[in-house]
Amino acid sequence: MSRYPQGYRKPTDSCDGCLAWGDFSGRLCPACYMFGRSHATAVCAGCRRVQPLKWDFCRLCWCQARLAAEAAADRLAAEADVRARLDAVRHHQLFFMGMHHRNGSAPAPRRRGGRRGAPRKPPPALAWRPNAGWRQLPLFGQVARDYGRLDPADADLDSPWLAWAKYLAHRLAEARGWGRGIRFAVNRGLALVLTGYVEGDVIRHTEIFAPLRALDLRVGHVVTVLEEMGVFEDDSEPSFEGWLTERLEGLAPGIRSEAERWTRVLRDGGPRSLPRREGTIWLYLNRVRPALLEWSNRYDHLREVTRDDVVAYVKTLHGHQRHDQLVALRSLFTWAKRNGLIFRNPTSRIKVGQYEYGVLQRLVPTQVDQAVAAATTPATRLILALAAVHAARVAQIGTLMLDDIDLGNRRLTVAGRVRPLDDLTMKLLLDWLEHRRNRWPNTANLHLLINNQTATKTSRASNHWISASMRGQDATLERLRVDRQLEEALTHGPDPLHLAEVFGLDEKTAMRYADSARALLQQTADHSASPSGKELGPDQRDLKNDGHADSTGMA
Fold this sequence. Notes:
The chain has about 550 residues and is mainly alpha-helical. The protein contains 21 helices and nine strands. It folds into five domains: about 1-105, no CATH class; about 150-235, no CATH class; about 240-340, no CATH class; about 375-470, Intergrase catalytic core (hpI Integrase, Chain A); about 485-550, no CATH class.
């Protein structure tokens, strides 16, 4: 990403790498940028600058050695002749960008939105899976390969497997809108991992991840092509395993094994239980962990925990902490009792109690104005409107598809419910679609909201990216969604059936919004009453009614 703001044209400057003078964006010219992506940075043996090096010399020294070799031979110099003259470099002839080309010709002027004036490179030839034929089977199984020791310069470019992979990569690039830089990086990564490949070999994630990352190549896109070829095996450890190991650290061995089995049943399901969502699993284990850590100091197994231990522990908790942790503990001990790991359920007959929710409060205009000011891009403005006008959750915003938008009939489908498009959302939606079309014209992603990471894929944008613009604000996306639903209850009356019909809420949530709206209306009526407690006169009653109408008609 450029360090200059959008719409600003960077003046002609000198490259920080080769010192060439030219018109380019950023600190480096295109040649030095590509040179630095594939070479490590250290002190150059020639000019003593800290630069990306190839055979201990920076690109500026290589350019000077090439000039000397071509002047001596009066022809294009081979790399061996250039390497022989690197140690003799004692000065540097400065030059303009683009003068050092292997074919000896100056580049054609760049065309806007495309490559240089040279004709477009033809697509790779049609290729199929190579015929295996006869091969020697391995005697001791496949030995793990060390791709980190391979040099990209030593890649086998004539491999039939590489030809097939490049053809598949070209098809995927055309279908998913991969740019020129992504195509170049993918072909380079394929050339590296398919060097020496034979029929029957399996390329594993743990073997190629670090070498490709070290060369700044697109690991995910390379893996997509290898999966299309059927030669890839994902042996990486799931993030759930690392998180579970961290959460169970410090527990007694017996309690640890039982808590691990319970967590896996929550994730995978069991004979009498359905699998839970990942967020529910995360909450449950985090809630029982403090109690399990305390009991691990005295006990080795869950069957040693008594009802008195549970009662003594929950007495130290208050409010929602007591409610949430007791619910999670009941889930753990109920599962343990059902599977015969404990004799009695120590959480039985301990009342959880009804959770007492507070009265939901409206956002003040200042908080909303700050949130609007923080939305500075077409995507963030549309996200803000979807949450504040249509009460869409973050996950629902991320899963919106292009087919959910019906511009002709001014309809928007959110979580399966069709809603009318108001003028504000319609304008923001058109602005975003125009920006999306100009920014990613070749993307194949059908999700409404995309970014630089998802434009070349088919997956949705993450919740973190969607809510990032409002993070730190008083009016977050979640509070804007709650404020919109509370406004509906204040405007049209605290009717749970109306709220459930408009926003698709379940009965308990709709009743909670109705109760909060009823409490806010009662507070408005109390504030409008006379502070002395006397009966209001006709003028005062009119003033009260006007204030009530204003409080229930807020936009």
